[in-house]
Automatic annotation (TrEMBL):
It comes from the Bacteria. Pfam families: Phage_portal_2. Residues 425-473 form a coiled coil. GO terms for molecular function: structural molecule activity. GO terms for biological process: virion assembly. It comes from Alkalilimnicola ehrlichii. Keywords: Coiled coil. InterPro entries: Phage_lambda_portal. This is Phage portal protein.
Length: 486
């Protein structure tokens, strides 16, 4: 412990302060540690534009970033997170589910995706750019939609992050979001078209105020009070970029070396031999600077002057530990993206069945958290509420005392696509035993697969009914299996 030459009132030297935490120390190891003190928004907004641009560039050009993002999206959404009404009135519940199924193909304001493809687009945009906005668009009855409502997916640039000012009504606009005196979001200030799109048909600088009850802001807040979202690729981008550059340089090195097979060392050489191709004897081409050059093709031998003997590297030698180095770098990128190495790389050679289960269980737990906390709560739930309101108000669904009992008519649940069985026989047997011993329900296990138990039972009954009719038409007797059910 270092003692100061400065003494206190008792004449004793002060003891130099030392942090109780090693990570808070100010020694040489931490001298270059940049850890600024900043609020939840100041820490992000200054770098967000650059992060978005580099994240999108990485998705376009870097195979590891693209594979990581695609894996996260496909596991979070799959073929779609499907809603089912939970209203107690059976007639209303069936009508609501049937109407949703009809509307699912018509909900995209751009007319490109169905509602489940829109879920995937929201997830992909959130992971690439950190956030995405969904705007409610009411339509006319004359538009011919099953329910006159659509939804428009907007990239985060539609809400300018630089917009910080006081609105005419006294509210504060912070990073494009208008907040009232009670801290509630009341509006979003948006461009009419993408501000970075050169084909915009209107003034890109014009902003419009959109009420917050018509907008979904889909993002992951990492700190309390954080207003905008951080791309999920942020921690992996620099490593992915550097690693990809290194790997590309290694590939170019091999490509450059590959055509040269050997070197011909001559005992005697003519004065002008360097002007002729060592393989064909033909004169070599001269460039603009007068320096001869040849096209090196596979199998080329180089010719040198007497006494010249180059040391050539082995083009097939990637260095000791190259494979381990590659694996470690991909593993690091996977940690940054939240994707297991095996899924990111496609290399399952070093894991067995038990390790596969452990890896996938941990990965799926994080995916399920994203499904429940972000996609379902922020996006899917709001869309169901908007859609049900529009269906009732426009007469597509009959709901008595809807204003008073709205919460009852909005009862529903969202069911993600089920995970595939790792070991079908064992997994199904485990489900059956859990149901038999009252540790699970038929409905709950069916929901885990993404299906509706009521619909499954109805389909099975219809299948059994058709089977019986076909046997009767064919003049076949009723089998014992038929009497017990299929």
């Amino acid at each position: 412990m270092r003692r100061s030459v400065i003494v206190n009132h008792r004449g004793m030297p002060f003891v130099a302060n030392k942090s109780s935490y090693d990570s808070a120390g100010q020694g040489r190891r931490a001298s270059n540690w940049y850890a600024p003190r900043s609020g939840p928004n100041d820490a992000l907004v200054g770098s967000l534009d650059t992060l978005r641009n580099r994240s999108r560039a990485g998705y376009r050009n870097n195979p590891w970033i693209r594979q990581g993002v695609n894996s996260l999206v496909s596991n979070e959404i799959g073929t779609g997170i499907i809603p089912r009404s939970r209203v107690e009135d059976e007639d209303f519940r069936r009508s609501q589910n049937a109407l949703w199924d009809r509307s699912a193909d018509e909900m995209d304001a751009d007319g490109v995706l169905d509602i489940y493809g829109m879920q995937a687009l929201c997830s992909r945009t959130r992971r690439q750019a950190g956030e995405v906005f969904v705007r409610r668009r009411m339509r006319q009855d004359s538009d011919g939609l099953a329910v006159p409502i659509q939804f428009q997916i907007l990239e985060p640039e539609f809400v300018p992050i630089w917009l910080n000012q006081t609105a005419a009504n006294g509210n504060q606009i912070r990073h494009g979001i208008e907040i009232d005196l009670r801290g509630r979001r009341v509006a979003y200030w948006m461009y009419r078209e993408h501000p970075d799109d050169s084909s915009a048909r209107v003034d890109a600088s014009e902003l419009v105020r959109v009420p917050a009850d018509s907008v979904i802001h889909h993002y992951l807040p990492l700190r309390p009070g954080q207003l905008r979202g951080e791309p999920v690729t942020a921690q992996a981008l620099l490593k992915a970029y550097t690693f990809d550059s290194y790997d590309d340089a290694e590939l170019v090195r091999k490509q450059t070396r590959a055509p040269y097979t050997g070197f011909i060392k001559k005992e005697y050489v003519g004065e002008d031999d360097w002007k002729f191709d060592p393989m064909t004897g033909e004169p070599v081409n001269e460039g603009d600077d007068g320096v001869p050059s040849i096209n090196a093709e596979p199998g080329t031998f180089l010719s040198g002057l007497p006494g010249e003997e180059p040391v050539m590297f082995d083009g097939d030698d990637t260095g000791a530990g190259y494979a381990d180095f590659m694996r470690q770098q991909i593993l690091g990128m996977g940690v940054g993206l939240g994707v297991p190495y095996e899924i990111l790389s496609g290399d399952w050679s070093k894991v067995n069945d038990r390790l596969v289960r452990a890896i996938l269980h941990e990965f799926r737990r994080s995916i399920e958290a994203d499904q429940d906390h972000l996609m379902i709560f922020q996006v899917c739930r709001r869309i169901w509420h908007w859609w049900t309101d529009a269906a009732v108000m426009r007469g597509r669904l009959e709901a008595r005392q809807y204003a008073l009992r709205r919460h009852e008519y909005l009862a529903h649940e969202w069911r993600p696509q089920g995970w595939p069985y790792l070991h079908p026989t064992q997994d199904v047997e485990a489900k059956i035993k859990a149901i038999e011993h009252n540790l699970a329900s038929h409905e709950g296990e069916a929901a885990k697969t993404g299906w509706d138990l009521e619909q499954i039972q109805r389909d099975n009954v219809e299948a059994e009914k058709r089977f019986r009719e076909l046997r009767r038409e064919a003049g076949l007797p009723e089998s014992s299996e038929q009497s017990e059910g299929l």
